[in-house]
Amino acid sequence: FEADPSGSGVVSLGYQNWLRSFAVDYTGRSGVPGLFAVVDRFKQSLVPTTWVMHTAGKVTLESRGFTIRSDSGATLKGHFITPEVVKLTYEATETGGKIQASGYNQFFVVMTVQEGDAPPIQVEGKGLDARVQVGGQTLEFQDDRLQFDSIP
To answer: What are the beta bridge partners of residue 61?
Structure first.
């Protein structure tokens, strides 16, 4: 766990064959009020895995991501860095719905929250070795956790 006075931080946890790292940036360096990233890594033979996100907003699926729109007009835009081939589906539930992403063993998802258009996401590299830039903020997964280049 790492925390910053801005409210930004990184939490990583793991058990036996899996690891999850969740990072939040509220500094505004990304050009949006909130930048979020999640890495889920499973250490096992190549097997199909499903990543799930529950939401109450209106969901639009895209080829490598999704947009969730609230009634206020704010959006959360998610982009899958890995897997490179991801199959996205949406299923209605009693409390809203859930986004399901099918892939293999590891997921690296970058999400931004904003009003209006989401900023472009630039990716150098592939998989969990990718270096991702959103506005003036850069993040990457190293060893067992996500890291931002510039959190004060």
So the answer is: 66
The predicted model scores a pTM of: 0.91
Backbone angles phi, psi at 143, to 5 degrees: 60, -90
CA-only gyration radius of the chain, Å: 15
* pLDDT tens, per residue, the chain with 152 residues: 888 888 899 999 998 888 999 999 999 999 999 999 999 998 876 778 899 999 999 999 999 999 999 999 899 999 999 998 899 999 999 999 999 999 988 999 999 999 988 999 999 999 999 999 999 999 999 988 999 987 64
